[in-house]
Amino acid sequence: MATVDVTIRGAGAFGLSVAWACQKAGASVRVIDPNGVAAGASGGIVGALAPHVPEQWNPKKAFQLESLLMAEEWWAEIENTGGEPSGYARTGRLQSLPENMLALAQERGINAQTLWQGRAVWDVVPAQDGFAPKSGSGLLIHDTLTGRIHPKQACQSLASALQARGGEIVPDAPHEGHVVWATGWQGLEELTAQHTRLVGAGIKGQAVLLDYDARTAPQLFVDGLHIIPHFDGTTAIGATTERDFDAPFTTDAQCDALLAKARAAVPALQDAREIRRWAGLRPRARTRAPMLGAHPFRKDEFIANGGFKIGFGMAPLAAEKLAKLILNGENTIPPDFDPVKSL
């Protein structure tokens, strides 16, 4: 086994993305994960790359915008290198719009013209038939910034690209070179064990996959529910957010509730066949922001973790920024993402 410049612990979205960014910058990389590629939260089925609303702008929202805007080119290079589809597409999103929220939605549309730099729009549009949410107001919100990705397939795409350029993905190996910890909820538990209070935890999510082909249509967001048409002709519904649970990797009646809610909101899904259900733990630090930077308890090592519900959307820029810090000592990561802020 050859000596490498960077060792990454964790073969999920963050770990593989950081490995890819380091590899593109000329470093040799090895990803270590005893459970294989996308074994944790990154093996889910939802994959919404949805922006924060265009208001009350802050560094986290600006960072996410930049990452979402660079995603198409970033994922295309990965697909071209490894030959595996990621399921990425910037297909936009339709959201239900209650009548009492119309003025706020229009105000956000005006904000988006500036905050989104003219590169995407947020509009109020007439409701439509077909794959769309019902609307009592007769109106919907449509934005063109939202993207979608197939989480597990995206990780496989990254893995193929890394290996095509000589990167290693192995179940175990000694640490060599720079070390990055991208170990999800287990990593947050390890941080908590080394600290005096909770650093982060795994939040359970459940989702349902349907046999419904709307692969070119915008995804839907209605009453807190993401409904995502994937590139392979399936449609995902999710996800729950559960802080209290007994069986983290087992689905239950909450999936029935998701399905009923989705079918009530989107009549087109009424007869769609259920393919499977998913349950897993997603890492959440003290805030939804990513933990990105120097490891607070391991000298000269690094962390890529957190980013609750926004990890795949943040991954392209997060990976590029962390790679620059690791390889060049260049730190342009927003201060709020510093892991010490989650302690």
What pattern of helices and strands is seen along the backbone?
EHEEHEHEEEHEEHEEEEHEEEH
Count of DSSP H/I helices: 7
Widest beta sheet: strand line-up: 5-6-4-11-12-13-10-14
Q: Mind summarizing the main beta sheet?
A: 8 strands, mixed
| Molecular shape | globular
Q: Strand fraction band?
A: 15-25%
Mean of all residue-level pLDDT scores? 97
As an assembly, this protein is single chain
Integer-rounded radius of gyration: 20 Å
Name given to the CATH homologous superfamily of the domain at 6-97 and 147-197 and 286-342: FAD/NAD(P)-binding domain
Helix content: 25-40%
Q: How is the CATH topology of the domain at 6-97 and 147-197 and 286-342 named?
A: FAD/NAD(P)-binding domain
Please tell me about this protein's structure:
There is one protein chain. By secondary structure, this protein is α/β, with parallel strands linked by helices. It has a domain of 200 residues: FAD/NAD(P)-binding domain. It is built from 7 helices and 16 strands. The strands form 3 sheets. It has an 8-stranded mixed β-sheet, sandwiched between helices. The chain has a 6-stranded mixed β-sheet with strand order 8-2-1-9-16-15, with helices on both faces. A two-stranded antiparallel sheet has the order 3-7. Helix 2 packs across helix 4. The longest helix has 24 residues. The protein starts with 5 loop residues before the first strand and ends in a 15-residue tail after the last helix. The mean pLDDT is 97.
